[in-house]
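Supplementary Text 2. Reproducibility record for the structural model of the 199-residue chain.

All settings were left at their defaults, and a single model was retained for analysis rather than an ensemble. We include the record here because the model underlies the residue-level annotations in Supplementary Table 4.
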Amino acid sequence: MMRERPFSAACERNKAPILRELQALLPMPATVLEIGSGSGQHGVHFCSMLADLVWHASDRAENLEGIRAWVSQAALPNLKGPHRLDLMQDPWPDIPIDAVFSANTAHIMHWDAVERMFAGVGRQLSAGGLFLLYGPFSRHGRHNSDSNLAFHRQLQQQDPGMGLRDLDELQALARSCDLALLEVREMPANNRLIVFRRF
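Retained model, structure tokens:
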């Protein structure tokens, strides 16, 4: 018997704003790999709204069962996976993709995992492919809200390896992985969508 589907309130809140950005940024048809799919809600929502979008969910092994519950119940032909992908040890899915998407992951990863994520994106994408990274980020060493600063401090108290990433550091990392910062889109609740393009 399949387990009850996990539920993320954050995914429920941000799925509509993110969908609008995907519609604006992705030329359709498009095939996207999601890193760190979590509950699986994003893929279900996006694929239900965009028939020309093929979405590959992925996550670490312990989250796959919950994602499968969402994928199975949705029964959408354009929603694939989930693929097992632990950035520190697993090979990336061998699938042709046009873009990579990841939401609310960089601040809970240690920096070496963030580096591996960017390196993998640089390898997987062909020229012109997009990497869309969503979440809370600082910029030029400054947080864009008191709540984000408090969240950063909370994460670092929990684990010094976690914390909000700075856009300047991410941009430098991206360049080393053949990715160029295209734009930064401000999102609700003091989040940002960072858009990189493979060159």
